[in-house]
Design a protein that fits this description.
With 242 residues, the chain is α+β, with helices and mostly antiparallel strands. The chain is built from four helices and eleven strands, in the order ααββββαβββββββα. The termini are far apart.
């Protein structure tokens, strides 16, 4: 008796109905080789950009520091010093009301023999300039001494600080301002030379005659004179030696 062999037709299985165990797992998209390559290229580019910035930044800062600073403002021009500036005279002693001196036959100007040459050609030199006078009356002894001392100290301080002296001397010249002392007052002066130019300042105090060798009885009167010469060249001055 033959066994009956049943031949069943193969069953068609819908792919969607296949067991999940036979399907290999899919890799996440971010782990695919293509994405990894792109990501790597991106990292390289970023590194190159930052590296270039660190290299160029110091050079840029250095170039900025070496770039000269320009200004659109007008440059300040320093004037060239001239001899007249160095020979400027101080203001008149501020404690007095000064008047311009007027020369007369009996009252000669200090400019008559303002300067003396004591080397080479000896003699006096008359100088041109301006002269002022001032006076104070009815002073007690203390007030008189204060004004006399103040006048001396003012000019001594102002002139010595500016380089004036009592004498000018070099290989060719020995020049001294007018100087005198006696009953009734005293005269003295200062001189300064710069770049071949010369100027003289003469000062005079008029005091009570009794103060010469004694003490005057006050109230007293005192007077003052100041002569400021013009600025002249030494070469021209020595031509006028008397």
């Amino acid at each position: 008796m033959q066994e009956e062999i049943s031949m069943e037709a193969p069953q068609t299985v819908n792919p969607s109905e296949r067991p999940l165990d036979n399907i290999p797992p899919k890799k996440p998209p971010f782990l695919t080789p293509r994405i990894l390559i792109i990501f790597g290229i991106f990292l390289i580019v970023v590194l190159l950009v930052f590296t270039g910035m660190f290299i160029l930044l110091p050079k840029t800062e250095k170039q900025k520091s070496q770039t000269p600073i320009t200004s659109n403002s007008t440059p300040v021009i320093t004037p060239t010093p001239v001899p007249e500036d160095a020979l400027e005279a101080p203001e008149l002693y501020p404690e007095f009301e000064w008047e311009e001196f007027i020369e007369s036959e009996l009252n000669k100007s200090l400019s008559e023999s303002a300067l003396y040459s004591q080397k080479g050609n000896w003699g006096s030199i008359r100088m041109n300039g301006k002269e002022w006078t001032a006076s104070k009356d009815n002073l007690d002894r203390d007030s008189m001494e204060v004004l006399l001392t103040g006048f001396d100290e003012y000019y001594n301080s102002e002139l010595t600080q500016r380089g004036w002296s009592y004498i000018y001397e070099d290989e060719q010249y020995n020049l001294v301002p007018l100087s005198a002392d006696g009953p009734g007052g005293s005269i003295w002066g200062y001189i300064k030379v710069n770049d071949g130019k010369l100027r003289v300042i003469l000062l005079q105090k008029l005091t009570p005659i009794e103060d010469f060798g004694g003490v005057a009885t006050c109230p007293c009167s005192i007077g003052f004179r100041v002569f400021v010469s013009d600025i002249e060249s030494i070469e021209e001055l020595v031509k006028r030696i008397n």
